[in-house]
Amino acid sequence: MKVRRPFNVVRPIADQMVQHFAAQGLVCEVGGSLRRRCKTVGDLDIVVRCADLQSIALPDWVMFHRQGEQVAQGGMLMADGSELNVDVWAATEAQWGAFLWYITGSKVLNIVMRRKAQERGLKLSQFGLFRDGVQVDDGTERGVAAALGMDWIEPVNRNWGVVEEPLRSFTVPSSSGEGFYSVNETERGWVCNCPHHTFRRVECKHIRSVKQDDLERCG
Ligand SMILES: [Zn+2]
What CATH number matches the domain at 105-157, 3.40.50.300, 3.30.210.10, 3.30.200.20, 3.50.50.60? Predict the structure, then answer.
């Protein structure tokens, strides 16, 4: 099972990574669900503006099991004993804009953008937007969007086609005693599959009961 963690758990680790690279005078940016500010985060992806990762110092609190020029993959042990996957990527100044789109996602948005490029006789990859092998974007994220004839999309609005994976899932008996409802804590809050919540989008008694149990457990 792929572990997802609350944004607030991964955020300080990402900040620490950014500071590590900034201290070497390097520009870097986090990607993936963290940059899209999802409530849960899978892996930690970070891109550093440089030509070769082997020419810079990687954080020694991450255990890297693969260390190449373009990507270093590793993990770090979390307080709960699980491992957070960490991928560090290198992108040059010219590749920067396209790489940010690529590393931020979502995957569906990346596919949509690549199709858009094709329709215009262009080729979009993580290395840039090209026409017949000649780069047409200016190396900035906004420049890639402009060259594609797209409006700018804030990272927080790039969750195209992202299926919400519940942070936690609960089963609550219906009050009639017949059957159960499924209550999930998701990236956008609590949802329940009972008619009351499904059709009226209000906090139903099933959600309230799960939250109440939560308070008592933590209290
Ligand atoms: Zn309900």
Answer: 3.30.210.10
